[in-house]
Every structure is written in C-alpha cells, then in structure tokens.
Amino acid sequence: FAGRLTGLGLSDGKRVATVAVREFGDLLSALAPALGDPARKKAAHNSKLLQLLLAKHGTALAGVADDPMLYSYLLEPLASSHALADVVLRRQGRKISPSLAESASRTHQLSELLRPEIVREDLQKLYSEIELPLASVLAEVETAGIRIDAEILGQMSGEFDKELTTLTHEIYDLAGGAFDIDSPKQLGEILFERLKLPGGKRLKKSGQYSTDASVLESLAQTHDLPRKIIDYRTRAKLKSTYIDALPKFVQQGTGRLHTTFNQTVARTGRLSSSNPNLQNIPIGDEFGLRIRSAFVADPGCRLISADYSQIELRVLAHLSQDPRLIEAFVQNEDIHSRTATEIFGVPAGLQNHEHRRMAKAINYGVIYGLSAFGLAERTGTSRTEAQRYIDTYFERYSKVKEYLDGLVQEARTTGRVRTAFGRLRPTPEITSGDMQARNRAEREAMNTPLQGTAADLMKLAMVRTQSRLKREQVQTRMILTVHDELVFDAPEAEIERAEAIVREEMEGAYPMRVPLKIDLGVGQNWRDAK
Ligand code: CTP
C-alpha cells in the first residue's frame, strides 16, 4: 500500500495467506522459488511496484500474467485512479478494507473480471506485448536509478541565491519600495495601481489583478519591472523544483536518484514521472542544460542518450499515408523546409528563417488539432494569414486532412479512437452541446492516435531494447525515459556495442511506411550526451 511493502497477500481464488514484512526473513526465502518461477502464473495489482519492492528484499518476481491495474488503465484510460481500492469500487461497487488478505482476493477477482474484457476490446496484444513487459522494464529502470552530482547542484544553488538577491533589489528599486515578490496580490497592486501600467484585469474569483506569465510578457514591452519578475519567477521555480529538490531524492548509500515512472496516468498512453518529474526540466535553455549536467555516468561509464526524431510527424505520415509526407521522410528531407516549400511555394534554398519557423509551427500544430487562432497566437501572424496557411497545408497534404477528418468521424460514430496498436481513448464529449467541450474532444480525437501511437512505439522500443541488452548479457543499463528519449549507462569498453543495440532496437521497433530515426549521443553527463 502507498508504495510501502507491508507484506504479501496470496490468494488462489479460494484460500488466502498473508506474510507480514517482519516475517520476510524466514518466509520470503521459502516463497522465492515460486515468486521467481516464470511457469507459475501470477496476478499482481501494480506488478511494477511489487517487483521493485521484492527486489529491495533480494527476491525476483517472474511469471506475472495478470495486472488488473494495467487492465483497468487500458479499459478506462480516462479514470483518474487505477489503485486497487478505486478499481474495486468502480467495477464491483464495493469499498474495501486495506488488508493484505482482502487485497489478494480482490486482485484475483479483478483479474477474472477484467481479463475477458481485455480480450473483447481487442487489447490483448497491447497488454501482453507492450504494457505488461514494460511494467517489468520500468521496475528495472527505477531500481537502477541515475547518479547525481550534488556538487554541481550545490554550486548552482549558491549562484541562484546570489542572482535572486540581486534581482530582488532591482525589483524593489523599480517598484519604488520593498514588497513580497511572491505575492501576486501585492505585485498586481504595484504594477497597476502604483506604476499605473496599462491593461490591468481583475480575476473574478479573488478580485486580484492577474499577474500570470502572459500578462507579464505583454507588460514587459513597456516597463522593466515585469521582465525582472519573469526572471525572478523562472529562477525561483527551477531552484525549488530541481536544483534544491534533486539532491533530496538521492538515496543514501547508493548516491543515485530513483524516480517513479507512472504507467497508468496519461490519457494518451504516454509515460510520466514523479519524484522528481523529469519531463519538465526546460529543454534548450542554459539552466536546463546545467541541471542535466548534474545527471552523471557511473565511474568508468558513459551515458548514451537516444532520442526519436520527429516521431509524431513520422507517425502522422505512416497513419495518414499522405504521399508528400511519406516522400519527405523516405527521402530524408528537412520536413519543415519541405512544408515551407509546399505552403509558400519557395524552394528550400531561397527560404528564410521565418518560412521554416512558420512551417514548423504548422507541422506540429496539426498534431494538436491546429486552429487559425492557435497558430496566430503561437507565431504572431494575423488570424487571416494563419487560416490561409492552414488551408494551403491541407490542400497540399490532402491525405492528412482526410485522415484527421476520419478520426473525428470515428469518434462521433463509435465514441472513441484508437492508436495503431489498438490503445483506446474514449471521447465522450464529442457530441456535447457545449461547443468548447466538443472542440476539445475533436482535438483529442485527432491528437491521441498520433501521440498515443508515438507512446506505443516508445514503450515497444523500451521492451525490445531491454530484452536485447539482457540477451546479449551486456552491462549497459537503461536508466531513464523522458518524452521520446532513452538514457543508458554504459561501461566505456561496451559503448560501441551498446550504441548499435540501442539504434537497432529503437529504429527497428516497428516497421512503418517511413523510417524511424534516432539522434544518439554519448557523454560523461546527460547534457553532453544529448
Ligand atoms: N515543438 C512543437 N511546436 C513547435 C516546435 C517544437 O510542438 N513549433 C515540439 C515538438 O514536439 C518537437 C519538440 O518540440 O518534437 C522538439 O522541437 P525541435 O527539436 O525544435 O523539433 P525538430 O522537428 O527536430 O526541429 P528542427 O528540425 O528545427 O531541429
């Protein structure tokens, strides 16, 4: 329960036995042969956690066939929790007492109840070939953990302290006096009452002025204070969520950080991580890079980072079968430049930075249910222009248009959409009378098959790569997964072999109409490897 192993509850459907943690010394070794026997089929709710906790007691887990937590996630991806008690409440209408015995028998019951549903919904392959083996891979990745160089973070923390102090004084000067910078109420009054900056809007609920990022960004055009506040907030946030927090997650003794990967949270099928959340480390700015430089290889090892290139766009090409999109990827063209050519009629050699930037925003925008309004916001163009670009895009890539329209239609008639691997996403609001809700559901119907298929591919690649690393008995270990990237810790003597394995398994994860490509780098730390 709650990530803490209180004991083991065992049930064969009729009888129940429990083993408390304090009895583990004697009993776990007696149970070990059965727990580690792949031929003895087992059910475990959250098998990843069980494997992880048993590993801490030196006991292997094999032969898990049913994981009702994963069943529940695949069947009802919109549900907010797949914890045992919540699944029992939803599926059996019962409140359960958190005892080992009851947990064990409910796990057995849920397995019997949900297994046939998985088959009926055609989710069996996704479950047994991707999600279930992935749970075990994730347990291994979490157990491996990653080495953190606390000194780098300590140094950063000191620098950030100094910068925050300097910023604080600058802010007081600009504001004409000291105040609590972290208080939106006080900040709002200074900006809009004392300094009389334009465009102050009061929030309905609190009556305070809004001082969110977009408000500050537009005020920064006319006054220096908002820019300083933005800098202050960015630094304070990074300091508290990463620079000062990461060392606290490092385990005494191992010196490593063991994050938790969530396999049953994202509605698209993507993985996420918590404690810490590795998905939110800024990409491509100086601070993000420095934070990544604190994730280091073991002595005698290097980190390998392998990142799928433009995976969602490749999935779009594969699923829509648009000939122009397929051609661009097969010919290994610059996809954004190609789209710029299609939209602006300007050949690659004559394009400027703006052409490519706009094309890139459209290419990725399509995946999120592009609207003229959204594109105009993101690129700073007018809405009329944006609409014209979108129209031209869909003229040139007409199969993409057909494919996306088809998804919305599918959602309307069946109430759900699926990824290439059959992952389900219900879209209950697709027929809603509320236009906003309906639009959102339409965007989800277009986005989930693309994002979700990318997620399926990534998960499949993880399962394949991990099993190959084991089969080849190398020392290289998978230690992180973030977005479309995998990170490995590899002994120096093994680097080339590990690179080849990772490349083959990730690029060969699944045959598509366009090639899958990864960018791969090696370095002493995560920044240098990327
Ligand atoms: N992205 C986005 N919208 C944009 C730009 C980027 O959604 N206008 C997201 C995409 O998910 C993309 C990720 O940010 O996969 C990384 O962006 P980037 O590396 O710039 O994308 P590439 O397609 O590799 O661009 P380039 O060829 O310029 O490197």
Chemical compounds bound to the protein: cytidine-5'-triphosphate
Main sheet overview:
4 strands, antiparallel
Give the count of helical stretches: 22
The Cα radius of gyration reads: 26 Å
Largest sheet, spatial ordering of strands = 13-14-10-15
Tell me the overall shape: globular
Instruction: Report how far the terminal alpha carbons are from each other.
Output: 37 Å
β content, as a range?
5-15%
Structure description:
There is one protein chain. This protein is of the alpha+beta class. Helix content is 55%, strand content 12%. It contains 22 helices and 15 strands. The strands form six sheets. A four-stranded antiparallel beta sheet has the order 13-14-10-15. Helix 3 packs across helix 5, helix 6 packs across helix 20 (435-471) and helix 7 packs antiparallel against helix 10. The model has no long low-confidence stretch (mean pLDDT 94). The structure holds cytidine-5'-triphosphate (CTP). Cytidine-5'-triphosphate binds next to helix 16.
Summarize the structure.
It is built from 22 helices and 15 strands.
Secondary structure layout:
Elements: E1 7-11, E2 16-20, H1 24-35, E3 42-43, H2 47-56, E4 64-66, H3 68-75, H4 84-92, H5 100-120, H6 124-144, E5 146-148, H7 150-175, H8 184-194, H9 213-219, H10 224-243, H11 246-249, E6 256-257, E7 260-262, E8 272-274, H12 286-293, E9 295-296, E10 301-308, H13 311-320, H14 323-330, H15 335-344, H16 353-367, H17 372-379, H18 383-396, H19 398-414, E11 416-418, E12 424-426, H20 435-471, E13 477-482, E14 485-491, H21 495-507, E15 518-523, H22 526-529
Parallel strand pairs: 3-4
Antiparallel strand pairs: 1-2, 5-6, 5-9, 7-8, 10-14, 10-15, 11-12, 13-14
Helix pairs in contact: 2-6, 3-5, 4-5, 6-20, 7-10, 9-10, 13-14, 13-19, 13-20, 15-16, 15-18, 16-17, 17-18, 18-19, 19-20, 20-21
